[in-house]
Amino acid sequence: MKLPKFLLADNSDFPEDLFVVHTEYPRFILNVEEEEVEWLDDLEGDDEETMADEATKVVEAAFKWCDDELAKYDEEDDDE
Length: 80
Fold this sequence. Notes:
Elements: E1 6-9, E2 19-22, E3 28-31, E4 36-39, H1 48-79
Antiparallel strand pairs: 1-2, 2-3, 3-4
């Protein structure tokens, strides 16, 4: 099965939180409201600085994707 790179998630135990799940390496769950990341994969690489930069980029991409996705929902609501 092919999965999207990012998924939106919520949970009734955390009604105020919104999560983004990154399904590709390095996999992680981002709590958008708390701005916290739970890594599901160990970050591998020889250069810690490079790995930190890559991790920062993918988390920033997750925030941007989430903002874009939520804007689409707002547009749909405005159309109704």
